[in-house]
Structures
1.
Amino acid sequence: MTAEGPSVLVVDDNPGDARLVEWTLTHEDGRRIRVARADRIATALDRLAEGPFDAVLLDLGLPDSRGTEGLARIRAAAPQTAIIVLSGGEDPERIRAAIDAGAQDYRVKGIFGPGELVRVLDAAIDRQRRGVAGTVPPPSARTPPVGGGVEPTLDDDAFGQLVELGGADPTFVPSVVRSFLDEAGRLVPAIGEAARRGDRSAVADAAHRLKSDAAQVGALSLARQLRELEGSAGRAEIGELARRAARIAEMYPDVARALRERAGGSVR
């Protein structure tokens, strides 16, 4: 028997991220979770005005909001709603700022194991209803290789989680991979062009959009390069930005090849 679950508003301007979160929640066994989506804070506020939601899953980097500004606006508009930040990085100051601004939890984007996101959701809703403040979550258990180790093109565990999430649906993994390849095929060249002309904002925005998509499909080494590029876009010399962008362009064909092999013949 399917139990009625919470209502959730996913606020993210990255279609791949939003689609994956929605899939994760709506394919949870034994729960009927209602999911709506918004790609701007302004749109999210309109959705919240139309009717209450039990929780908001919020990306902090949106076109009409930066930092915790959007979080504060949602908290003011929906004081009874639990807010969980889903972000592409684990910067301790950013996590603390989100919790201080009223978020019940902060999680790094990626593939969530079976039941994991729903457990986070239920706990956040419970804390909000009891008036208990959020706490800073433990850091991710995933760490980069040390001692000069070489990161693989695709991380087996991360890709395995994607396969596990898709379950018996044979179209899920190919659709996620195809979506990533379409997005990366557009954004990787755009990053290089923006770096060469010194457009720091465009470099940071494109790297931000692509990094979580790369993590979703198990391309963790590429995601790390994109995260570092985004973080350095505002301060690095133009030549350094161009070199970092070129490194990403060099890595991408191997990632694309590996993904096509893993996803099967339906992805070209």
2.
Amino acid sequence: MIPLFISIRFLDILDILLVAFFLYQLYFLIRGTVAINIFVGILVVLFFWWVVRLLNMSLLSTILGSILGGGAIVIIIVFQQEIRRFLLLIGNHEFFNRKNILQKYFSASFISISSQSLKQITNACRNMSKSKVGALIVLSNRSELLTYVQTGDVLNADISHRLIESIFFKNSPMHDGAVIIVNDKLKAARCVLPINDDLVLPANFGLRHRAALSMAMETDSIVLIVSEETGHISYAKGTNLTTNVSHETLFSFLIQEFMVKS
């Protein structure tokens, strides 16, 4: 009996599956962005380097090896936003959710948004939708969002639809930017949210929708949008943007997110 040329262990199969999984997750993070072209280019160079090594082409192999050897720093610089999103994705994964012991001990002081506050928020969205007042409301799911809170005016106020509507009233000095809600409190107003320029959105979506989706992708928060042009209510969670929903649908979604999972 002729022995097999290659012996495959269980760990080899596991190794291949893990590499395939991480490559898929990386592709999922950067698809639709300019970084996907750079990613494909790196894979082509890496594949070419492997072929050159198998053919024992020493000079070309050494040159490509030197380029790829210092490529780690280049990758960190080029993919800094994607790497940040990947690390945030790991930190916000269900494995680290409130049912996890470590998460439970380190975030025991976090208070979920109450159903009464959610009702006030959806009522504010309904009223602003009718009068076509633009709004951007960030609802934190687990984190304090201190980096973004510090970009605005800290209020730490009780949540009410009148307060939210007065903040986004066109003549209000705080109507620009976003409202951030943390620990069942309206934490701050006039906050600056991150903008991901690589996002591909339809032309009818403005800066609010882009900022909302960027914020939802980078944090564990849910971001609500009221369009100033159309009055439509939308919300962003993770990489998904759901548009033109009724305030009843919005309330049901928020109850599912903040009450059922608490």
3.
Amino acid sequence: MKTVFSGVRPSGAIHLGNYLGAIKNWVELQKNYQCVFCVVDYHAITTPFSPKELSQNALETAATYLAAGIDPKQSLIFVQSHNPDHTEMAWILNTIARIPELERMTQFKEKSEEHKSAINMGLFDYPVLMAADILLYGTDIVPVGEDQEQHVELARTLARRFNQTFGETFKIPESMVRKEGARIMGLDDPNKKMSKSAESSLNYIVLTDTPEVIKGKIKKAVTDSGSEIKYNPENKPAISNLLTIYSLVTDKPIEQLEKDYKDHTSYADFKKDVADAVVEFLTPFQKKFNDLLEKPKEIKKILEDGAKEAREISEKTLREAKKKMGLI
């Protein structure tokens, strides 16, 4: 069975874009793959954060995985900082990573612009730690958004370079980009990805938003000129984004939705239906999520067990890499 690795940064409330672009897909992947799903808290501390919020966010991220349908009997769920092999492997990979490679990383450029007063070495080195995350588990497939493909390509480069220099050690992972829903865009700006760090809360729908809040945000979502409900990301990015969301929460093909709204002459009814569909989609998730948060000890036990099992796998890879390098 092939191995899948992925993770989410516990850097704030998880929004609908995270869910539809990544976590929803994970639930299906665990049926056919050995899945490793990590709460990547070391990545979260590369940008400004609150220690108190970080620990709560980590717990809520794990609860999100579980409420979404990730089964700890089928998949590994653990917190990155609970397995020190990640940072040790990152240091080893740092010795073969090249500075120009990291300087080319688009996300580093974007985050540096966003956090000008807090550019740190961890932010620069983020992709090497991500490579360590991936390579430790003999990962075959990394489901990512389009914005993370560059990081997976670096992991591939480092794996090949290590293998060529020290001997065959790492699998060469492949990225899996879900084209439909890979990038859910902001409700207030369909030209930018939905983001937890957006200035306006009207940009995103938090998974725990109330029905009233969800309906209000979608009602205020920007639209395109005209009234035709047609999927055309280039000319109608706002409506195309809403169609994508509608399709993913109802499992209806976009083509079918276009037919359903062929004779509509305004966006108002369409946006109301999108909002109702999102509310219906999130209602069972929110119930499970809230129930889980009432039992934090159970979540922590799942994370502890997951970390132990994860380390049994990662230790073998780390030990092999160190042996190949001549570290005694």
4.
Amino acid sequence: MMPTSTVVGFDGSRTAWSALDWAAQDAGRRGLPLRIVHVREPWCAEHPPDATGEHDTLTTRCERLLAGAARRARDSAPETSISTALVTGAVTERLRSEAETADTVVVGSRGLGGFAGLVLGSVGLGLAACAACPVVVVRRLPRAPSGEIVVGYDGSPAADQALEYAARQAAVGRGRLRVLHGLRHPPAAPHPVGFGPVPVDDSDGIEQRLSDWRGRHPGVDLTVSMSFEHPIAALAAASRTADLVVVGAVGLSGVSCARLGSVGHSVLHRAHCPVAVVNAQPPPA
């Protein structure tokens, strides 16, 4: 069976170059092939209005773009097997199809078709919500890597899989793994006038689950941080110094595994480093 790949969706935008760099380094660290995919939308004309000659077609431009991306990826990860693919269709749908056989799909936070001023595009949101593999959205790369990966953990199935993904990243040389757990507030509870609801202290249960996890993964340098902040604020703050933030697609407050939860959605908009969103996979039949 062929090894699965790190797939990067590439359109030549500023954040796509950052995503390419992250994907190449990730594939190199983990010994995976890198597949660079450019999606050509079917309604785009083959002969652009600004073409300089009969051979200056949209296809040739796309091929040049992919060739340049492959050269940059080889410079970053010279021992990695690199391939390119020019496919036609709707961007989110084609990358979602790529995710069915990929180890990870990586995209920039905004593509060339985005509106100025928006932090996260529809492609990143659409993939993070329902891709079959982890999706990494790259807005910018850390200027000074810290060697720390932060994972949000609430004990949900998606959080368990996010923890496993974060641990795999830590195990291939990224460094420390910090598990961030926010004490939950009940959705509705009687409380004194003028005060908010008292947080649910489930730290003992979380500590026990992580203790069991440490026993199964003794080689991972794991620390736990309990926070009284809202998980979104805590993870956004942690992203200022982390190399990667990892979240489950839907946590305990989610209503469907096909939807991106509020924490994942908000962290994608607020993070200062790449964010990996991990969808919980159904148990085997």
